[in-house]
């Protein structure tokens, strides 16, 4: 279908939509609903129900402050959607956004889940089936085990074959948990036992697989969007190498370390791979750049925090597109319509104290001011008087800057962060400024082993 036949219909696809998340992403989803003429209904916990970003909005309290009683309470959320006459639900990111059981529960109760089909989510949510599917689609993989390991002895055999150091990883893992490094044969057994014990404690699943540990690589991810009619497009790649404890601090696009040839080849392969598994909606494929080759690691079957970077470069609203696709409409644009311009950078600003080992800093924000200016975008749910609760992720805002060049985008980010005012709680702004001003970051001489400038 050509781009000319695609377009936003005059009548909204859904009349009412449940926003099953909180904070910045809830505001982001609501903004897309407003653009489409849809009434957003916010599912909130008792800790969030009086937050300023909900002022004048329709809300339903789904439970107590702690996530298991509210934002992870599947039955309560679906019941709230039904009782508030919502015919669709957007899970945002985190919480239940990648839970195929929740997606199936929504569908079983007549609520459209804005995300991929439960079967695709289940396939890509387990690491080894996902790797097998991506290998079949032509993506390069990190050398390692062909599937789940049977024992520490098998792990030793695979490690001897692929070469040390190796990484034992939890099949159901995430966030750096259930992972251990073995740098030689004598470390495999203990690494296997430790990774398995942590995986069982964190995920209730002790299955492990093994990969060769690539040190000194770059973390690159590809944004894709697909409809239910087999059309898939990419919106370029993002470099997410700057991380602390496997948590992203800064993202940029395009990746300054990727060759044009490798970029073009992998973007096309990612589109084919998504189509091959019947993927629908927004998704992100994560890769490790290993001596010039992008090797597939995993797929996030949801909207990413850093989707804003791709929106800025492409001029496309990914959340609006998610909702349209979920309503059964074809993509409103084709690959030829995606024009990626300039350079974009995003900094995630958290209520944490960098001087105190990044300890979360809940409390009241006495004064807040978001930066403005050419090429500056701020996504936030915060204003003066906002109380940062102790129960959830500490993200306060995302600052995104764009420029014709990487240097211009960096300069605008430094200026924007200097203008951001947050009085009452400490933030990670000083850390970001230290990174942005460092020679290592400015000259693009860094990798996954260390944070540039730190």
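^ Assign residues to that structure.
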């Amino acid at each position: 279908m050509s781009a000319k036949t695609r377009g936003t219909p005059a009548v909204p696809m859904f009349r009412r939509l449940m926003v099953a998340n909180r904070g910045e992403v809830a505001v982001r989803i609501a903004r897309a609903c407003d653009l489409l003429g849809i009434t957003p209904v916010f599912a909130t916990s008792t800790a969030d129900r009086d937050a300023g970003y909900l002022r004048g909005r329709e809300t339903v309290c789904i439970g107590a402050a702690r996530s298991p009683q509210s934002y992870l309470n599947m039955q309560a959320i679906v019941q709230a959607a039904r009782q508030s006459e919502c015919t669709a639900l957007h899970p945002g990111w985190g919480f239940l956004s990648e839970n195929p059981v929740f997606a199936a529960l929504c569908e079983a109760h007549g609520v459209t889940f804005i995300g991929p089909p439960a079967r695709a989510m289940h396939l890509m949510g387990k690491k080894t089936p996902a790797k097998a599917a991506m290998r079949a689609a032509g993506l390069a993989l990190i050398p390692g085990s062909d599937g789940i390991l049977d024992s520490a002895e098998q792990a030793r055999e695979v490690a001897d074959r692929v070469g040390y150091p190796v990484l034992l990883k939890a099949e159901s893992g995430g966030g750096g948990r259930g992972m251990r490094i073995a740098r030689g044969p004598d470390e495999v057994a203990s690494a296997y036992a430790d990774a398995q014990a942590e995986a069982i404690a964190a995920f209730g699943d002790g299955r492990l697989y093994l990969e060769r540990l690539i040190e000194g690589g770059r973390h690159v991810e590809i944004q894709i969007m697909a409809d239910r009619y087999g059309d898939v497009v990419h919106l370029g790649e993002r470099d997410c190498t700057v991380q602390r404890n496997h948590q992203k601090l800064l993202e940029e696009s395009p990746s300054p370390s990727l060759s044009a040839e490798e970029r073009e080849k992998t973007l096309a392969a990612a589109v084919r791979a998504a189509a091959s598994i019947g993927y629908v909606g927004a998704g992100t494929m994560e890769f490790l750049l290993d001596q010039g080759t992008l090797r597939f690691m995993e797929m996030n079957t949801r909207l990413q925090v850093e989707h804003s970077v791709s929106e800025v470069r492409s001029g496309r609203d990914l959340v609006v597109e998610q909702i349209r696709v979920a309503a059964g409409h074809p993509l409103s644009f084709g690959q030829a319509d995606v024009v990626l311009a300039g350079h974009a950078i995003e900094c995630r600003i958290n209520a944490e104290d960098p001087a105190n080992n990044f300890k979360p800093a809940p409390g009241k924000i006495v004064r807040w001011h978001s930066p403005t200016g050419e090429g500056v975008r701020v996504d936030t749910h915060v204003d003066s008087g906002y109380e940062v609760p102790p129960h959830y992720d500490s993200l306060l805002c995302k600052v995104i800057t764009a420029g014709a060049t990487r240097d211009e985008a960096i300069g605008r980010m430094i200026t924007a962060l200097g203008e951001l005012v947050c009085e009452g709680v400490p933030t990670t702004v000083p850390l970001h400024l230290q990174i942005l001003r460092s020679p290592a970051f400015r000259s693009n001489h860094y990798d996954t082993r260390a944070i540039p400038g730190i």
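Confidence is low (pLDDT under 50) at residues 1-11.
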